[in-house]
Amino acid sequence: MDYHCGYIDALLQGNVMAEGDVQNPLLGETTCSSLLHQLQKIWDEVGESDEERDKMLLQLEQECLNVYKKKVEQAAKAKARYLQALAEAKLEFSTLRASLLDKSFVNAPEKTSGTIKEQLASIAPALEQLWSVKEERIKEFSNVQSQIQKIRGEIAGINEQEGKAVVVDESDLSLKKLGDVCQHLEELQEEKSQRLNKVLEFVNIVHGICTVLGSDFYSTITDVHPSLNDVNRAQAISISNDTLARLANTVTTLKESKKQRLQKIRELASQLTDLWNLMDASKEERSLFDHVTCYISASVDEVTAPGALHLDLIEKAKVEVERLDQLKFSRMKEIAFKKQKELEEIFARAHIQIDTKTAWEKILALIDSGSLEPSELLADMDAQIIKAKEEAISRKDILDKVEKWMSACEEESWLEDYNRDDSRYSGSRGAHLNLKRAEKARILVNKIPGLVDTLVAKTRSWEDEHGLNFAYDGVPLIAKLDEYAALRHAREEEKKRMRDQKKFHEQLTTEQEAMFGSKPSPARPLSSSKKVLGPHVSGGPNGSFNRRLSMNPNAARSVKKDGKKDNLRPVAPVNYVAIMKDDAA
Predict the structure, then answer these.
(1) DSSP code of 252?
(2) How far, in Å, CA of 511 to CA of 339, rounded?
(3) Is residue 137 part of a domain?
(4) pLDDT at 518
(5) In a designed cystine with 293, which of 78, 269, 358, 508 is the match (CB 3.0 to 4.6 A)?
(6) Backbone phi and psi for residue 134, each to the nearest 5 degrees, phi listed first
(7) Long-range contacts from 518-523, C-beta under 8 angstroms, 24+ separation
């Protein structure tokens, strides 16, 4: 108030100068002094009293004071705002440096004193640079976190559009934090890559199995997730936990289905093979189902051919099995007859006698009654055939020696006929061939005793090993060999007797010639019309050799009370009585 009054008094005292100022056109503006001078002049002209003048001046002074107060208040508020701005700038600077963890910031403000505006002007560039760094960091964090959120959504199976907006934590924007986030992103990307590879692996497995089974791959894979069958790749392949789980279940189901179908194929292939073998099917007929039988011993992983386990293929094989199964009953008798013939031929070659009529009647009865499965019957016959072959093999060595012995007996019989032929030394055609044969026959005949002894030893060894008699066409071979030994002994005795008898006749003839001087008519040699019989392996009615052994009932081997076999005693030959009659004559 005093200040303003003094100011007004000063203006009043300087009326002259003010007046000059008012009149001065060079000033070009109105000042307080000029205005006060004009007011004074007006008051003088009007004739205002001093009281009115003081009152008006006081009012004018009050109004000026109010204006000054208002300006001071505005200036104080402005200062407070500047101070607040400076404090906030310093706080923001510290906060940014703390969030960025950049304590050695290059453009840090150097002025920490001076006017407020100077301090603000000093900190502004640093703040601007920190804000720029912060915005770049936020962009980097936002980019990395967006990728992380996207991959997490793919793993969780959440659509990208349904994901939440990325929120960056601005309290820590340091490079270390950014590095950790980037490392986490790399880990998620690696997991995504592994999941994608796993999905593709499952898809390939599903494709392979569907190809083998003949199933619709695209329909199967679309049921798992549509993105797996997205040819144009409009959407990314799903790698979610749910997709992987459903793919794993699909693969498990398909593998089980493949395993079951392969098992069915194996069963059908086995049945087809058995039926083919049962009915002796041709190669052409079997080749129609080579694509089935080729998997009879294959593992699940080995079956990879397209359509190898198709349902149509299994159905066709099943129909073929049913057809053959119905056909086997109609051909059962024919097949059984062939196998029985094969069995009889084995026994015949092994010289084993069986009751073929009874065996065949039994087979027909089993087939007609249906009490036994054809496959079981044929399996039993196959077992008999195998057993018969094994028995034939065990008898082969002995049978070979029996053949040699019988061949030697044939030669022995021929040699006897040859020796009784008086014209054997004539010059007839072919006589030299018979002479050579006779020489060989004598060598072979001389080996007969050793051959018989070897045959007896082997036969006894075989009987001890198998616990039964060795029969040749129903005749015990040991008994027949003993019979032959007895006959051979009797024959040797007969030959000796004939030689003595011949010598006696020759001596008698010589004495008659000496006594009567003339040679009497030659007497008929005794038993000349009777052929000395060899072993019971004798010639046929036309001179042919009968190779079948017959058993003399008197030549059977005796058995002791303790069950051991007794050595056979030589028995008289079947033609012994006839020989004695001839001798008597």
Answers:
(1) H
(2) 74
(3) no
(4) 53
(5) 269
(6) -65, -45
(7) none
Distances (CA, A) of 111 to 107, 114, 118, 121, 128: 12, 8, 8, 9, 16
Nearest to 366 by CA among 389, 407, 333: 333
CA angle 437, 440, 443 (to 5 degrees): 150
Q: Taking the model in full, what pTM does it have?
A: 0.49
* Tokens 């010289």 found at: 351
CA-based torsion, 289, 290, 292, 296: positive or negative: positive
Residues spanned by the domain of 325: 202-330
- Residues 209, 325 within the same domain: yes
Residue numbers in the chain where pLDDT is lower than 70: 1-29, 98-99, 101-113, 159-164, 230-235, 370-371, 424, 426-428, 430, 517-585
What does the pLDDT look like over 458-469, one tens digit per residue? 888 888 888 888
> Which pLDDT belongs to residue 234?
53
**Tokens 């959407």 belong to which residue?**
235
Phi and psi torsions of 129, nearest 5°: -70, -40
State the first-to-last Cα distance of the chain, in angstroms, to the nearest integer: 205
Residues in contact with 545: Cβ distance below 8 Å, sequence separation at least 6, in sequence order: 406, 409, 410, 413, 537, 538, 539
Task: Give Cα separations from 273 to 60, 270, 281, 380, 515 (angstroms).
Answer: 133, 5, 9, 17, 95
Angle at 78 between CA 72 and CA 83, to 5 degrees: 125
Contact assessment for residue 129 and residue 89, using Cβ atoms and an 8 Å cutoff: no
CA distance 70 to 419: 178
**Is position 496 within any domain?**
yes
Given a contact cutoff of 8 angstroms between Cβ atoms, the answer to whether 89 and 97 are in contact is no
No. of helices (H) and no. of strands (E), the chain: 18, 2
Q: Comparing C-alpha atoms, which of 544, 537, 530 is closest to residue 575?
A: 530
- Amino acid in position 505: H
* E strands in 362-521: 471-472, 475-476
Tell me which residue has tokens 């992987």.
244
Give CA separation, 539 vs 406, 419, 441, 564, 573, in Å.
Answer: 11, 16, 16, 35, 16
Q: Rounded CA gap, 28 and 14, in Å?
A: 19
Give the per-residue pLDDT at 326: 79
Q: Hunting for tokens 């000063």 — which residue is that?
A: 10
Q: CA torsion sign, 90 to 91 to 97 to 101?
A: positive
Residue 503 included in any domain: yes
DSSP 224: H
* 473 burial via Cβ count (<10 Å: 0-12, 13-18, 19+): middle
Closest CA to 272 of 180, 375, 126: 375
Same domain, 323 and 213: yes
How many Å apart are CA 269 and CA 252, to the nearest integer? 25
pLDDT value of position 108: 53
Q: What are 71's two structure tokens?
A: 């300006």
Q: For the chain, give the number of residues.
A: 585
Position 305 in a domain: yes
Cα(356)–Cα(346) distance, rounded to whole angstroms?
Answer: 13
Neighbours of 267 (CB within 10 A): 14
Residue listed under structure tokens 């009889």: 344
Task: Give CA–CA dist 339/381, Å, rounded.
Answer: 7
- Answer with the one of 292, 308, 330 that is the final residue of a domain: 330
- Boundary of a domain, candidates 62, 81, 111: 111
Q: Residue 572: what pLDDT?
A: 34
Query: From CA 529, how far away is CA 497, in angstroms rounded?
Result: 16
Nearest alpha-carbon partner for 59 in 103, 124, 22, 5: 5
